[in-house]
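Supplementary Methods, section 5.1.

A reviewer requested that the exact input to the structure prediction be made available. We therefore reproduce it here, unchanged from the version used in the analyses.
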Amino acid sequence: MSYVNAVLLALSVALSACRNIFSKGIAGFPFGSKSFYYAQAVIFLFGTVTLAVFGGGTVVSASALTIFYAFIYAVLLIYAQWCYTAALKNGNTAICSTVYSMGFIFPTLSGALFWEERLTIFRICGILAVIPAVVVSGMRNKAGGTHENYILPLVLAMLSSGGLGVMQKVQQSSPYAEQKSVFVLIAFAAAGLISLIFAASSKNLGKKMSRKKLLMSQGAGVCFGGCNLLNTTLAGRLDSAVFFPLQNISVILLSMALGVCIFKEKPGKKEFIVLLLGVAAVIFLSV
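The structure derived from this sequence is encoded token-by-token as follows.
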């Protein structure tokens, strides 16, 4: 891996982990409420601004194929961010970031199926290790208390995050790979507009958004937009079975550390089992 790619990867990991923490900070809004959708709209619109400033390129230069891919990407962005935020309302940051990141199995498989990237027995074992990680994450804690239902939105978020990785590979393999910045920009703008429409049409007001929550939404948007641009760039430069596992396991570890430091979360046996299964998956996928 070149020095430039290593720096871009480190920056992607930092932005992705910060996006997880900011998303946790706004997870108190009830799903389906006006405040929930408004927070999501702020995330996507600030991501759009970030991409417009740092991404380069203009929408008018986008090909019809790039625009088509961008709208598919927008739908996946919405499912990934909405469902992930809903899961974080009741779920531990370590658990949620681990399961969400396990979505990398889909671009890893797509690399072998469609782009002739190598898929060995070790990588198959790594992919299979994801299954018990998801199952354990949904188990009840033995330490008492009620079991909050966050696993369904979390699995939907995981599937959507995997779809994002696949679409990054698809766009970078298209004849218009140089339009990656415009591709992500259009997707974020569309996701922001759709979120605003849902916010305007929602009857449930939910909690009032404080200045602190607004700043967290803006921070999540800047981080989410930045890491999507970096990930799309790196997806075209690095092998899927190297980039996606390495990026995601680093995000898992950093997110867990930040969750402990900022939200005072105490990882228990379940969290460590899920983490170990995630690490095992990455090790196998990297062999």
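Confidence is low (pLDDT under 50) at residues 143-147. These observations are discussed further in the main text.
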